[in-house]
Automatic annotation (TrEMBL):
GO molecular function, one term: ATP binding
Protein's organism: Spirosoma endbachense
Keyword list, A-Z: Amino-acid biosynthesis, ATP-binding, Kinase, Nucleotide-binding, Transferase
Gene3D superfamilies, A to Z: Acetylglutamate kinase-like (3.40.1160.10), Aspartokinase, catalytic domain (1.20.120.1320)
GO cellular component: cytosol
GO annotation terms (biological process): homoserine biosynthetic process; lysine biosynthetic process via diaminopimelate; threonine biosynthetic process
Name of protein: Aspartokinase
Length: 413
């Protein structure tokens, strides 16, 4: 059995859904098809959550209407029975009529998850209408998580049991990425861009023959074309390299996706839905590492440096206090470096969380803060590649390991 994952860009309009159907018809007989919310629906639903929690006249209705019209415009370009989509829109509307109670993250998951529900309802109805045996399956009944809203942790044993009791090869299974359910029956999500991870979970549990992520790029490139003119398609990548690239911020694959596949030796293909016959990239068990350098750019980075207020060194006790604070604030550290009396970290500039964290850190440390930075990671670097990316940049911090260099820079351009 194969597992296919289609992201929001692949189903952003009716033509995208038709293209998906053609790929499934020609290459995905009996596949499990994991689908994200259509286009930028997740962002639109996030706006709706904010409007619901901080209501201002007309805002909820306006946002709801945008989401409704967008899905209707896609439906109007397709044929099929789309009653269930209208029912989901009604469920959403009814939810928003209730007064806001509970926690932000929980409410977020109940609302935002409906993007995936609607997209799969449209895709399944259209596939069925084209004559493909299709079974719409609710991922909330299959992906068992704990109650960590917005970052649900998967209960693998329970999920495995449910998936194997439900998924058959009798039809194409159409299901949602990104969403699951807590033991007490509340919807959870797996973190932004989590649909790739869902595909890996299904593949792992079903011992799938492969996973294919269908993207709007030809495969995994050695750099993001947004930042680099001359990019190269990487035809084969080891699991190890793919994990490292994803972890450092290559957005083409969600970092959690690869480990489960590596454990079972299931190949992961990254292919273009625009050119579905092109081979793309395959990630698997290979002897050889990447032969060329890969570049990962992260913008909007903040460098935070901490100096103890007392005369202590940066040693175990200080470090554990610092890490505790970051973990509690839910801020992921992209790079860290310490000397005897200072500790520096680079993190994404998350203004919802950083100011409070800084307040806490200031209780024990003198804190310096530098924003508007870029973090450049090069895997399989040499000096000429470093020189190339440093043109017109001021280097603030550098960290090298055998295969990877990370550079924190300020753009002077
Ligand atoms: N729709 C979700 C998001 O945009 C999950 C995904 O697309 O992977 O983050």
């Amino acid at each position: 059995m194969k597992v296919f994952k289609f992201g929001g860009a692949s189903v952003k309009d009716a033509a995208g859904v038709q293209n998906l159907a053609e790929i499934v018809r020609t290459q995905g007989k009996n596949a499990v098809v994991v689908v994200s919310a259509m286009g930028k629906t997740t962002n639109a639903l996030e706006d709706l959550v904010r409007a619901y929690i901080n209501p201002r006249p007309g805002q909820i209705q306006a946002r709801l209407q945008t989401i409704r019209s967008y899905h209707e415009s896609i439906i109007h370009g397709l044929t099929g029975n789309f009653t269930s989509v209208y029912q989901t829109l009604e469920t959403l509307e009814a939810y928003l009529k209730q007064p806001f109670t509970g926690l932000y993250d929980e409410v977020y998951d109940q609302i935002v998850s409906l993007g995936e529900i609607m997209s799969t309802q449209i895709v399944a109805a259209y596939l069925a209408n084209t004559g493909i045996a299709t079974r719409w399956t609710d991922a909330r009944q299959l992906i068992a998580t704990d109650v960590t809203f917005r970052e649900g942790r998967v209960d693998w044993e329970e999920t495995n049991r449910r998936i194997n009791n439900t998924v058959t090869t009798a039809a194409v299974t159409v299901t949602q990425g990104f969403i699951g359910q807590s033991p007490d029956g509340r919807t959870t999500t797996l973190g932004r861009e989590g649909s790739d991870y869902t595909a890996a979970i299904f593949a792992y549990c079903l011992n799938a023959e492969s996973v294919t992520i269908w993207k709007d790029v030809p495969g995994v490139l050695n750099a993001d074309p947004k930042w680099f003119d001359q990019t190269v398609l990487l035809e084969k990548i080891t699991y190890q390299d793919a994990i490292e690239l994803a972890y450092y911020g290559a957005t083409v694959i969600h970092p959690k996706t690869i480990k489960p596949l590596q454990n079972k030796g299931i190949p992961l293909y990254v292919r273009s839905f625009v050119k579905p016959d092109a081979p793309g990239t395959v990630i698997g068990h290979y002897e050889r590492h990447l032969l060329i350098p890969s570049f990962i750019f992260k913008i909007n980075q903040v460098l935070i440096s901490l100096h103890p207020n007392d005369f202590s060194f940066i040693a175990e006790d200080n470090l554990s206090r610092i890490f505790g604070r970051f973990a509690q604030a839910g801020i992921k550290i992209n790079l860290m470096q310490n000397t005897a009396i200072s500790f520096s970290v680079v993190v994404d500039n998350n203004q919802d969380r950083i100011p409070e964290l800084l307040g806490q850190l200031r209780q024990d440390f003198r804190v310096s803060y530098n924003d508007g930075l870029e973090l450049i990671t090069i895997r399989y670097y040499d000096q000429s590649t470093i020189d190339r990316v440093l043109v017109n940049k001021k280097l603030l911090l550098e960290q090298k390991s055998r295969y990877t260099v990370q550079l924190v820079v300020k753009d002077l351009g």
